[in-house]
Amino acid sequence: MQLFFIFCTIFFLSLTNVSADTKHFIVSVVPQMQTVHIQKTWGAFLEELSKQTGFSFELKHYATIPLFEDALESAIPDIAFMNPYDSVLAYEWHKYQPIVHDNKKLVGILVVRKDSPIKSVEDLQNKTLAFPAPNAFAASLYMRALLEQEEHISFVPQYVKTHSNVYRNVLFNTFPAGGGVNNTLMREPLSVSSKLRIIYKTKQTASHPICIHPRVSKEVIQKIKNTILTMGKNPAYKALLNDVQLPHPVAADYESEYLSLKKLNLKKYLVR
């Protein structure tokens, strides 16, 4: 009788956990911006997404991009907003699937102060340059590869954790130049963005996707995807979506949009 009671208890708890898992999801966001900004903007977005889907979303924040990537490798988030190259790694690690991204292409940028005498990347030979983190895709990983391989620039990378920190370090003359992306620079206050000038760009790629771990059911994934796409058609959600870099969300496809990034041969520049 006691064994039967234990069995029933375990069975009941397992059902409870399954139910919780299908309703409650951990969401993480690549920390390009300051923590307060991410918590405010993504908190508001997930609150609305929760209302429309009936699911519960818990925002789990990581202070740095390397910590965020460690979480992806450990499959901690159910859902994550990540850079394009991290989507390649996350797919290799655990088959995370991209579901949506903004229709605007992602472009890595190298910025200097507007009044800087620096005119081109040749002027940065042997300089120390600011980057968010080693594996920040277009702002650092791809940018460093292009500067070294195509532009033949020797430089010392200095990692300052976020895109926001890069822009401010350049603005305050701590470094002569730094790497960012179009989607974060345009979201900086004018007091910052108007005082910076772009001197170099990477080739464009598909933008940051929202990716979901395969442990989440296909039905749930489809509901989340459809809800975001529907929100994108409603002007009432324009500001909300813009704040999370999804002003014009479209369906994402791993094989046609992200798989080709493996051909860039960036693994030698990865820092793990």
From TrEMBL:
Coiled coil: none annotated. The keyword Signal applies. Residues 1-20 form the signal peptide. Keywords: Signal. This is ABC-type phosphate/phosphonate transport system, periplasmic component. It comes from Sulfurimonas gotlandica (strain DSM 19862 / JCM 16533 / GD1). The lineage of its organism: Bacteria, Pseudomonadati, Campylobacterota, Epsilonproteobacteria, Campylobacterales.
